[in-house]
Fold this protein.
Amino acid sequence: MIHKLASILIFSLTMFGTAYGQAREIKVDFSKDAYSKGDFHFSAREAIDASNNQSFIGLTAYCKEAHLQGDLSFRIHTNDGWKAWQSMDLYHEVELEDRTVFEAAPITTSFDSIQFRSNHIDAEEWSFRLFFPQKNAEAEIEKTEKKSISVGTCPLPAYCNRFCWGENDCPADSTPTPTVPTHLIVHHSAGFNTSPNYKDVVSYYWDFHVNTNGWDDIGYNWLVDPNGVIYEGRGSRVQGSHFSCMNSYTLGICMIGNFVNQNPPDTAVTSLIDILAYEASKFNIDPDGMSVHSTSQLNLFNISSHRDGNSSTAPIGCPKGTTCPGDSLYSKLPEIRQRLAAKSCMQGVSLKEEGLIAWEIYPNPAKEIVEIKGTEEIVEVSIFDLSGKEKALDINYTNSREAKVKVIELQEGMYLLKVKGVNSERILKLMKSK
């Protein structure tokens, strides 16, 4: 049955201007009749000044009703007349419980008008959002990035920070949810295999995720473009929106591009491994191992992909069926895990060779007391649950390089020991048994 759909545009069109670009939002009122033809219902023609001075124009749409089914299409008018209708895709990378979202392929043609049509969708009002990135030259990242630092064993690689791609107009979530990841989740963006300016692409995803999806920030913790440039999203230790309602205890890293049939560039895969190495060493995640992800209740590779959560039945009410990160990238994950595990900074290599600090904790699992020994003077030991909450425990520093922690009062489960030395710190997993 075709649901009758009206399409009168309310032209209180709002233009939002920022340093990272401009956005124009068009409200479509579906509560009144408009002209229709066959199964389709058409909006009025709307004039748009879309001269070709951007690298692309992004188009998304949403309605604040969840799980609607149907088709949304658009067409643009150029100097040569109306172009063919183009379908917008139902957004399936992440399930949304408070809205239905559609996304179009990036528009790279100049146009002066746009029109929308629809069928099968029973909803009163839709918001169509056109995003116009600011046309700037690609930033010289070395002038704006945070420099590479080492927190765990593997260093944080050079990256384009939030100011680099969004200046001050793409703010981070002011009240982020902290998380201590047990799993690192690989994604693809399902678009933009090529772009003259990937900073524009990252700012578009921020606008899409915040203003169309209704999130507090860009969904990913890190992004990697096809040229191998790494971009800061939510950053480390912050819960993202990327794993089908099961985001706790994960970090999401997005490879920009569509890798269903096309292989990711080697430069991008190398950068992906570098940022995975940083996070894996920082949180003591075995790069080639498997463990239970508590939120999904699945036994997953510690380096997994978005689609690996599809079989979870928890939480109820979040359908899962994504193919992210695409077959070509997904097939490379075993190689990526092996290359990550083989990195020297992920090994228990000798201190003389790499200048690394080795810490040992035993027994593990532990019932009553955990002993910590290291090759460097211990300055401080602290213990956290997986939500990041610190636990007040009795810690006895037996000598400068050894300590004992009484864990008998902890409940059964996984915890993280943070051992700080004179020149380094490590986070080690601890399993508390009965």
Observations:
- The first strand starts at residue 8 and ends at 18.
- The longest helix spans residues 266-282.
- The two ends are 58 Å apart (CA to CA).
